[in-house]
Amino acid sequence: MLNLVLFGPPGAGKGTQSQKLIEKYQLIHLSTGDILRNEISKGTTLGLEAKKLMDEGKLVPDEVVIGMISNKLTENPNVKGFIFDGFPRTVAQAEALDALLQKHDEQIDRMISLEVNEDELEKRLLLRGKDSGRADDANPEIIRKRIAEYQSKTTPVANFYKQQGKLSTVYGIGTIDDIFKKISEVIEKLN
């Protein structure tokens, strides 16, 4: 099984590259936002608990998110692997994910971090904001705050996987296909 964490700041191209990875390697995409919405729509115990917290404006605790990821692993025992998108965001989440995967005799094989400079990220997000209508992609000040938040909170997660020898960085500027080729080269070296 191939288990990847695709990592990078807002606008780095994670969504675009995730889709290409899913198609090429037949991976299941595990986006915590999608999982939350799915569990809520199914009316599961964890989904109802998450909805109650979200309705109160509170963050869903790590153990609830890990429980939902555990459900996905259990529901998909014969897949080729998973790509984790938007999770883990903290070292505590990375540790919890490692522990969960160990229970399933699995592990994270590689964290692939897309490296893009701040000027390029801002340009991409502003362009995306024009097309998508997302308010958080239309305001340069909010964009800079999101990038700073990413760097302060999630850089320790990259270091966590680096200490395990599982971090690969890919320069995320160029054509979509060129970047995908670099990511694929990282994955091919795992086999």
Key words describing this protein structure:
59% helix, 8 helices, globular, Rossmann fold, alpha/beta, 191 residues
In a few lines, what is going on in this structure?
The chain is of the alpha/beta class. The protein is 59% helix and 14% strand.
Describe the protein's architecture and organization.
- The protein has 191 residues and is an alpha/beta fold.
- The chain has one domain (2-27, 79-188): 3-Layer(aba) Sandwich (Rossmann fold).
- Helix content is 59%, strand content 14%.
- It has a five-stranded parallel β-sheet.
- Helix 2 (32-42) crosses helix 4 (62-75), helix 4 (62-75) packs parallel to helix 5 (91-103) and helix 6 crosses helix 7.
In the CATH hierarchy, what is the superfamily? P-loop containing nucleotide triphosphate hydrolases
| Arithmetic mean pLDDT | 90
Helix content: 55-70%
Encode the helix/strand succession as letters: EHEHHHEHEHHEH
Taking the alpha carbons of the first and last residues, their distance comes to 11 Å
Uncertain residue segments = none
Could you name the CATH topology? Rossmann fold
**CATH architectural name:** 3-Layer(aba) Sandwich
CATH class: Alpha Beta
Radius of gyration, in Å, reads: 17 Å
Q: Largest sheet at a glance?
A: 5 strands, parallel
Strands of the largest sheet, in order across it? Answer: 2-3-1-4-5
> What is the general shape?
globular
**Number of helical runs?**
8
β-strand number: 5
Number of domains: 1
Strand content: 5-15%
Secondary structure category: alpha/beta
